[in-house]
Amino acid sequence: MSTMEIRKRGEPVLEQTRTAAMAAMAPPVDVYENTQELLLVADLPGVAKDGVRIELEKGLLTIEGRRPTPTVGEQVAGEYRIADFQRVFSVPPGIEATKIDAELSGGVLRVHLPKSEGVKPRRIEVRAS
Amino acid sequence: MLTRFSDFDPTFSLFDELRRRMERVWEDFDEGSTPSLQAATVWPKVNLYDGGASFVLTADVPGLAEKDLQVTLHDGALTIAGERATKAPEGYAVHRQERGSVKFTRSLALPCKVDAENTTASVKDGVLMLTLRKAPEAQPRAIAIRAS
Questions:
Q1: Over the stretch B6-34, which tens digit does the pLDDT of each residue have?
Q2: Within this chain, do residues B103 and B124 fall inside the same structural domain, yes or no?
Q3: For residue B23, what is the enclosing H or E element?
Q4: Distances from the Cα of B94 to the Cαs of A54, A121, B7, in angstroms?
Q5: Does B42 sit within 8 Å of A79, measured CB to CB?
Q6: Rounded CA gap, B52 and B130, in Å?
Q7: B140 touches chain A (CB under 8 A)
Q8: Are residues B113 and B71 in the same domain?
Q9: Average model confidence (pLDDT) across chain A
Q10: B47: which chain A residues are within 8 Å (Cβ-Cβ)?
C-alpha cells in the first residue's frame, strides 16, 4: 500500500469547503501504518469531543475541529491564533470506510483506518505433496 | 533599531541584529512547511489575557497532562517545563511525523506582581490554563471623585 497523500500545511483547502474554513489552521499530523490499519494522529488543542467532525467522501478524509475562543478577558499578548482546525487527506483504496474509528484525548485525535481483508498481508502455507 | 543591552561592541551587535533578522526571514518563509522545526523553536506557544483581577495564561500542550508539566513562579518570572515524546506506536511504520518531540523550559516575565498563593493551573483538552491573581498593589482600583 502506498503512503497516504497528504495535503501540505499551508496549502489552500479544497474549494468545496465552507468559506469559514478558509481561516482554519492545518494541525500537525503523524501517520503510522501496520498490517491491520493506518493510524492518523493529530494535535487539536482546545477542541472538545463534540467539536470534532470526521468525514470520508470520495476518497477524501476531512478532519475538522472547532475551537471556541476563550472568554477570560482582554488579550494582552499572543503567540498563537485561536482558530478552527481543518485538514484533508486522500485515503488510499483498501480502507474499510465503515469501520473507521476515532478517539480524542487531551487534545490529541487518533483516527484508526482499518485495511480491508483484500489488502492485508497473507501468509500462504505450502503443502507437501 | 533595538539592540540587546548586553552587547558590548555596537559593531558586532549590528551584525548580530542583521543575522537575527535574516533568520526571521527564513522562519517566515518556512512557516507551514516544517511544523516540527517550528514547534521546536518555541514550545509551547502561549497567550496572555487580562481579566481585571487576574491574568490568564493559556498554552497549547496537546498530549500532555497535569503530571507532565511543572509550573513554577519565582520573582515575577513564570516557568513552564515539561517533555512530550511522540514515538511511533509499537509495530507501526512511520509515514509522516509532524508532531515534534520536545523537551522544553520557558520562562516568561509577567507584566506585574502576582499572588503565588492564589495561582491555579489546569489542563483541559490539551490546553494549559493558568490563572494568576494580581498582587493587591497591582489590582485595578476605581478612584472615587468627590464633589467639592
A1: 444 556 667 777 777 777 776 665 555 44
A2: yes
A3: helix B10-30
A4: 22, 18, 45
A5: yes
A6: 15
A7: no
A8: yes
A9: 83
A10: 70, 75, 77-80, 82
Which of A34, A42, A73 is closest, CB to CB, to B92? A34
- Looking at the domain assignment, is residue A128 inside a domain? no
B148 within domain boundaries? no
Average pLDDT over residues A107-111: 96
Same domain, residue pair B83 and B66: yes
Q: How far is B25 from chain A (nearest CA, A)?
A: 17
Q: Containing H/E element for A113?
A: strand A108-114
Given an 8 Å threshold on Cβ–Cβ distance, is A106 in contact with B126? Answer: yes
**A80: closest chain B residue by CA:** B45
Task: Please indicate whether, in this complex, the C-beta atoms of B127 and A4 are within 8 angstroms of each other.
Answer: no
Mean pLDDT across A94-114? 93
Question: Rounded CA gap, B68 and B49, in Å?
Answer: 24
Which residue bears the cell 499572588?
A: B115
Instruction: Sort out which chain B residues have CB atoms less than 8 A from A33's CB and list them.
Output: 92-93, 95
Instruction: Specify whether the CB–CB gap between B101 and B24 falls below 8 A.
Output: no
Region of poorest pLDDT, from A11-25, A80-94, A98-112, B32-46: A11-25
Q: Which of A66, A103, A88, A77 is nearest to A4 (CA)?
A: A88
Task: Tell whether the model's pLDDT for residue A31 goes beyond 90.
Answer: yes
pLDDT of amino acid B102 = 86
Q: Which domain holds residue B68?
A: 42-89+98-137
Is A19 a member of any domain?
yes
The tally of domains found in chain B comes to 2
Q: Are residues B36 and B47 in the same domain?
A: no
- Examine the domain organization and report whether B28 and B58 are in the same domain: no
Q: Total domain count for chain A?
A: 1
Interface contacts A/B by beta carbons within 8 Å:
131
Give how far A12 is from chain B: nearest CA, Å: 11
